[in-house]
Amino acid sequence: MKKFLYILATILIASCAVPKKCCAQDDSKFKKEIKKIFKFSTFYGAVNGGNSVSDVDVFSITNGLETQTVSTPFDYSIAFGVRKIARLGYENRANTFYNGTENSFSDAATIGKIKGFEFLFEADLARQQGIEFLNQQHFLRYIADNWIVKAEYLQDGFADIQYFEASERYRLKVGNKLSFNIGAVQRLSEPYGFDPLEEWLLSNGNLHYTDLALQEGYSVQFDGQGGITYYNPSGNLVAENTQIWEGVVIPQALSDYVEKERNKLDQTLQHSIVIGFDYYHYTKDFWLHSWGNIMPYHYDDGGEFSYHKFHGGQWIDYSGGLIFGYYIIPKKLGLFVEGKYNKYWNRNWHDFSFGFNYVIR
User: Can you spell out the DSSP letters for 292-308?
Assistant: First the structure.
């Protein structure tokens, strides 16, 4: 420890002894590099909201006619981000400001419009129809003529997918529009090959959900006259009949149990081979941007929760996107199709949009 402190003190003294002019030059050079990295980037933060589904009246005749109004809190999203991604020819940013609701399909493409360094960091805390979730997408990528490197972190609350991915690829250009790539991918995620409910399955394939609920702290009481009540781990009454117990309480208990057991496990690292392509053509009346990635082989490290064991061998993961636009009548009638699709492990998530525009002049 003393040796480390001595070395650190020597470095500090030496740095202080450097002429002021030299330090100023280094500082100026550093500022220029930082400015170059963030040039044309946009930092943004926004809050968006609106009403959710309308109130619903629920009627009951168990103890005479009773009415209960179920209200769903308003929807909202809170977004923060910074992005530096060159817009492609077909992209037209209509809004003056970024508000976090933009959905640019081209962000998922392997290759952007320009060579060099691009990045996106965005986090979105949202509530929709009373359900809160967190979405995140962060990536750094560098594109050269013959190679591509990219690091990405994705969390999609809707799809229940979360992972970190890094890839290194060799790129082969075929003309100015088409390119192919091949390389390696490393993905860090929770073990999606783990099924916490497997140990609770009976020989007939049914789930022993009552024993599981009792283990998790739920309790059941009989009044001796055929009545039955169910209580949660906090001792609060949650159901007064089997229908509510099985239809409402048990699904929530299973969901909580699965999430708890999954969170106990360490994340796993998956090594895969990736093959991809990217095609981009643009004119004012017709454009086509398409990309795809396929992972046909995954290294099996023999881990206890390896997805190889869950799936029974190798599997194929893939992702892709398509953006198409065509003006049948220039500046009047046009068609468009946009979408992306991802399938990793046993989860898939996708977005799409298609339609037409007709302008009366």
Answer: EEEEEEE-----TT-HH
